[in-house]
Amino acid sequence: MNVSWGYEASLLLRPIMTTTQVPGAIPVEASWVSAYPGGLCEVRRRWLGERRRGEFTPMMGSLCKIKVRRKAAVTHEPTASQVPESTADVSPGEQASSYPRSQACVLQVPLNDWVLLRMGEGQCDVVESCLEGMSIGEVCEFTVSAQNAKTSKATSSDAKENQMEAQDLTQQPECFTLQLHSLTPGLESWQMTPREKWAWVLSHKQWGSQRFGKGDVWGAAECYCRAVRLAITLHSQTQRTPEDDMSEEAEDKNNEEEDEYTETSHDCSIPSEDEYKMIKAELHSNLALCQFKLGQLGKSKDSSIKATELNPKSTKAWYRRGQASMELGELEESRRAFEKTLELQPDSASARAGLKQVNSKLKDLDTKLGKRLSKMFN
Question: TPR repeat positions in this chain (predicted)?
Fold first, then answer.
């Protein structure tokens, strides 16, 4: 079975933004869906004051100095012309602020403090999305409301007072303001070199593993999606191996010319085609696991199929394909996936258990079908 390019193309798309005309001085409002550790939320953003024209706006790698405040705590709503300039501009040598992610918080940054946020790292997807298109000195207002009913009410004993408390978003949307004080230049993905893209891919993969290990499944899935989006743009930009070059050289080239391939032309920070496929397969396989745990069975199956296409020897991908197919009721495909897992790893207890379970389900179906046929002819 082959997954079309449409599946990967869908991962390239950011959440669809819709614009609507609203009354008053602010003519345009945008909305989209973002992820946070407790699930999905709808974000609505509108600009406060007149738009500014800056030389650049936040892009991947930009270090942004920002302040987020709860709307109820703002007595006089700031506008772009009233942003305080008492704090120093951010410099390229500074490091982004790091905060532990919590399912009890929708925003993964403190409130009422100046914070350094690195675009593309996914510390807070809600805030990163709001920063897109902002210029230095601008202020926007954004409202966050639950996209799904499942929200976490867990609390943290050592949470700071200025960090957003656990909220039940199903009851009432929360409104905030976001100020962009200063930023460093960044790059769009199409402006990056293959080396820069690959570094981001590996970083997102590492962050995804760390978040998954801490129970932040939504955050892990977001990291893997970001990595896959960038990896797709690296297609046909992988590094050539010496064997590739030698196979395409003309037969009449002398040995001296053939031996000109040196270590300087082999950049280890750019993946070979085999390494590219292997890492990409791992990303799809890890994403499949996240999607399975989040109940996104169809997406989990698609991701695992893509992983097995990229790396047919991936036992984890075949096993996850079997799991998703079984939950979807596609028992024959599930059985084939578990059998393939055992072919690659005969001592896999989990694959044996999965195969036993799917065979039991198939036997039950055969029994029920036999009874129905018996009633039809008797």
Answer: 315-348
**Which CATH entry fits the domain spanning 194-240+268-370: 1.20.1250.20, 3.40.50.460, 1.10.10.10, 1.25.40.10?**
1.25.40.10
∠ Cα 98 104 109 (to 5°):
30
pTM for the full predicted model: 0.79
Q: Kind of pairing, strands 174-183 and 114-118?
A: unpaired
- The conformation of residue 239, written as its DSSP 8-state character, comes to B
Quick one: angle between helices 315-327 and 349-377, nearest 10?
30
CATH number of 17-186: 3.10.50.40
The region of weakest confidence among 87-96, 197-206, 266-275 is 266-275
CA–CA distance, 167 with 158 (Å, rounded to integer): 17
Structural tokens at position 235: 């297609």
Residues 6+ positions from 346 with CB-CB distance below 8 Å: none
Strands 139-146 and 39-48: antiparallel
pLDDT tens, 61-117? 999 999 999 987 555 555 555 555 557 888 888 888 888 898 888 999 999 999 999
Q: The tokens 């991908």 sit on which residue?
A: 317
